[in-house]
What does this fold into?
Amino acid sequence: MSAVADSTIVPASREAGIKAAEAAFRAAERRARMRRRLLPAAGVAALIATWAGLVYLLKVPPFVAPSPQLVATTLVAKFGILMANLLPTAIEAVSGFLLGNLTAIIIATAFVHKKSLEQAFFPVVVLINSIPVVAKAPILVLLLGNGMEPKIAIAALICFFPTLVNMVRGLESVNPQSLELMKVLSASKAEIFFKLRLFNSVPYLFSALKIAASTAVIGAIVGEWIGSTVGIGALIIQSTYNFDSAMLYATVIVGSAFSVTFFLTITLIERLVVRWQPHASI
Amino acid sequence: MTAPAVECRDISVRFMSERRVVTALEDVSFSVPVGGFVSLLGPSGCGKSTLLRVVADLIAPSGGQASVLGATPAEARKARALGFVFQDAALLPWRTALENVELPLEVGGRRALAAGAATPRELLALVGLAGWENSYPHELSGGMRQRVSIARALLGGPRLLLMDEPFGALDEITRDRLNAELRRIWAETGTTILFVTHSVYEAVFLAEQVLVLSANPGRVAALESVELPRDRDLSIRDTPDFVAITARLRAHLGSVH
It folds into this structure.
């Protein structure tokens, strides 16, 4: 006889039945959670295995594409060089991220307070944004020289636009009844801004920051492609010219690992800051 | 003689858009006595929410005059003589229930609560939310959120409470319960209430007087006194007196369509 049938007869065993069902539910949850973690890992493993298999079977020469083992060896052997080159790129990406987003937040605030500013300058911003990064980079190198400055500027420019657009929307899209409430309470413009609009914009800001976290790294790397001797971008160019495919792949892996870490850091900060709404898992 | 809580004379409101001019209200006159409870009843689009917003100084009338407690609506708003409860609770999602109730103390010129006035905690208890002070709005049900917004509107002891279909989005069981509680809160606080609704039952159960508005343009169609005992519970809706009043109101509503 099944536990469910028993539980309908005797109350004590009903409780046991509920406990058993709960245990089964928890076990299923655990299995689902394991699957959610294991399946992506299995996907990555399958990709690496296919890569290794293809390189081995087709006898691809190392200057065209390296085997995963070779990349792993290079990652370990050249770890010092890779980190030494990651540092400037990381500084440029993070500085550009801070500069670009801070500027975007300030300009969004100005736009929301003075509609005529937005009407006058938003088209200019759209125009600048429509220039591809690879075209902006040489212009900035000519303007700012060969140091970190042009790379920071490129990373900042690339972050700027999504944050500006999202921030303006976040500041403006307040619930009309909340706005009426503030008017009934005779709140000043500054109070409406600090108590209502700013908080309202935070979730919008974070979705822009998460985009900016990865694009800032791209900006810094693209900046380094033009006249730079250090950084992940410079290392990519050098290894390509030297047909050092293992080094190229190792560099790319270090760059994207940094990008992912940056993204996850922003996501973590978002979880700590935005506590007032139920979170979707990333 | 003291001034009535609300006095409206020939209020007209016209909204201009590119294509046409909409007359939301035309020559609406009525008054609410101090300590009274008046329901504004009418079909959707009859301008009852607009009328409430004229009284709250959220909309300037195109014609006519409104006064609140003998002053202009703007003066009453600045003196915090009125509280407003919106259709959706309009809570700030990043503030806990208690912090939402405290909001009126933080804006519009920081002001301390008058001595002897009910504290935010006491008001949450008054609306039946003791123990929920630290919950965020997303953790509360629709009915609880609306209770928080009522507590917020009551902070500082406003002499006039304006309510814009506050229970319109709630299920019937929750709405009934909140109706009964609103009668109790009205009796306990002694505040004047002007309550907008499109439910005939709600209008009659709550109020001492029901003002019926007709649509297109919004005008006063009837003013009905609710001759029911002051102490009411929900079962009063099955009494012949109650049914007779609702039938009369429905007749007014039917004739204005």
Summary: Chain B has two domains: 6-81+160-256, 92-157. The first strand of chain B starts at residue 6 and ends at 16. Residues 53 and 59 of chain B are 6 Å apart (CA to CA).
